[in-house]
Amino acid sequence: MSAYLQFDQVSKIFPGVKALNGVSFEAHAGSVHGLLGENGAGKSTLLKILGGQYRPDGGRLLVNGAECHFGSAADAIAAGIAVIHQELQYVPELTVTENILLGRLPTRFGIVNRPLARSIVAERLAAIGVNLNPDARLADLSIAQRQMVEICKAVMQDAQVIAFDEPTSSLSHNESEILFRLVRELRAAGRTLIYISHRLEELYALCDACTIFRDGRKIITHPVMAEVARDRLISDMVGREVNDIYDYRTKTLGPERLKVSGLRGEKLVEGGDFSVRGGEVCGFFGLVGAGRTELMRLLYGADKREAGSVQLDGVTVPEHGPSAAIDAGIVLCPEDRKEQGILAQSSVAENINISCRRHDLLGGIFLRHRREAALADSFINRLRIKTPSRDQEIRLLSGGNQQKVILARWLAEPKLKVLILDEPTRGIDVGAKNEIYRIIHEVAERGCCVIVVSSELPEVLGIADRVIVMREGKICGELDRAQANETSVLRLALPDATPPKVNTITPRSFS
Fold first, then answer.
1. Nearest to 287 by CA among 81, 491, 470
2. d(Cα 460, Cα 469) in Å, to the nearest integer?
3. Mean pLDDT of 393-412
4. Which of 7, 122, 364, 389 is deepest in the core (most CB within 10 A)?
5. Residue 91: what pLDDT?
6. How high is the pLDDT of residue 14?
7. Average per-residue pLDDT for the chain
8. Are residues 261 and 288 in the same domain?
């Protein structure tokens, strides 16, 4: 195998942050090279340089032995490079066909040949094994389906270098299987693949070699991934030993505080009945599409209820949208933090203070900037948010640090009683996960109810006092911590069969 892709002393500096500091490594044709590191370590920045979105401030990028200088994403695509970013980049009002062929739509006499475009996309989607309607608007698709569109777009560009940044963070098991097959087929076809994931089982199943980043520097390259112990990878990433990532704490639970009865909505027709005790961490598990997010949005008031009620400490929460829920002490960290959680163009401080500002941070018509600044700084330190300052735009932070800012917003709420976390560690590294789990347990120890929705079964089993399982839009069972294990939970989630592990997928020829 030859070194088809090389990074030579690549550096990138943002105001107050050295995102990359002299990074050098190489990836070979016909191989999958994994990139590992905590959020903010520089992995995504490196891919944005590879994809032409950023220009390096130092060093060289070589593709097939030739030094490349990309002024735009179009330059990188023309050089045979495709990057699937963690933060999806699509046009929501365009169709699947238009997004996949964006910039490459076939024309006839200067007019887009839509029947031909649709035919091309439908044929390739079928060959890849993806069940998507070529005429569907991206805005009408789920996050997982949008992710598959981005993956298909990159594969259909016939690029020689393809980089994946957390590609399975929102995919279902079946969609992940398709992706794993594609990765193996692309490797067999001689492509050079870069793969970023915080799911170590994926990296071991797919990657030939890996490079570990920390604080913008390359720590080490392991030429044979299979020969590196899991604990070694984790300690290389975080710079310390992480023995019990979930940090579970045995505690005495209080009486029932939250009672949900018969919640039903447009996307959840079966209804939901459950309760949560004070100090309890209640995990919700189910496959993508099981109805977990829909149930939480009904509980929070983000979607309109058709039936049902929510009681907190014996008092019915009014059906007046999220504002009524927040006033009652119920808050939600949404699954899609980019679209629904952050104010992308605002600062870290603004994002932390935006909700609690309505309490006592107003002085006449002027904001009490000093108190807001102090509150923001206290949570930046407490949650170990990596940011050059409270004034940094949140969109420039890594995904894990954006998640911590959303957590800080709700922890600053003096009335907090119920904390709902929907996929709180999606796309987050092991070190940041450990810190978020610590926060979850601290909130529960205050007597609050904590609900954690996750499609990662080890996470639910690791942190929850009780696990509620959903399937096909309804609650199908619950298990105490002592009863909950992988087999018992999967029996409820998948009564007919247990899905195969990723390393049992049989590769097929690339077409």
1. 470
2. 10
3. 84
4. 7
5. 83
6. 82
7. 84
8. yes
Tokens of 477: 């069972």
Q: What are phi and psi of 18, to 5 degrees?
A: -100, 95
Tokens of 199: 């799911």
Q: Are residues 213 and 284 in the same domain?
A: no
Residues 176 and 304 in one domain: no
Q: Which residue has the tokens 């994994």?
A: 34
End-to-end CA distance of the chain: 22
Structure tokens at 461: 């089993």
Burial of 504 (0-12, 13-18, 19+ CB in 10 A): exposed
Tokens standing for 510? 């690339």
pLDDT tens, position by position, 49-101: 999 999 999 999 999 999 999 999 889 988 999 998 876 677 888 899 988 88
Mean pLDDT of 9-28: 89
Q: Is residue 508 part of a domain?
A: no
Give 367's pLDDT tier (boundaries 50, 70, 90): low
β pairing state of 449-454 and 366-367: unpaired
Say yes or no to pLDDT of 411 above 90.
no
Axis crossing angle, helix 292-300 with helix 321-328, rounded to the nearest 10: 80
DSSP string for 134-198: TT-BGGGS-HHHHHHHHHHHHHHTT-SEEEEESTTTT--HHHHHHHHHHHHHHHHTT-EEEEE-S
- Pairing of the two strands 31-36 and 449-454: unpaired
pLDDT value at residue 366: 54
Domains of the chain: total: 2
E strand or H helix at 421, and its extent? strand 418-422
For position 218, which CATH number holds? 3.40.50.300
167 and 227 both lie in a single domain? yes
Are residues 217 and 315 both part of a single domain? no
Q: For residue 227, give every residue at least 6 positions away whose Cβ sits within 8 Å of its Cβ, in sequence order, or none.
A: none
Range of the domain at 159: 3-238
**How far apart are alpha carbons 478 and 215 in whole angstroms?**
41
Domain assignment of residue 66, yes or no: yes
100 is written with which tokens? 């996949």
Residue 393 has pLDDT above 70, yes or no: yes
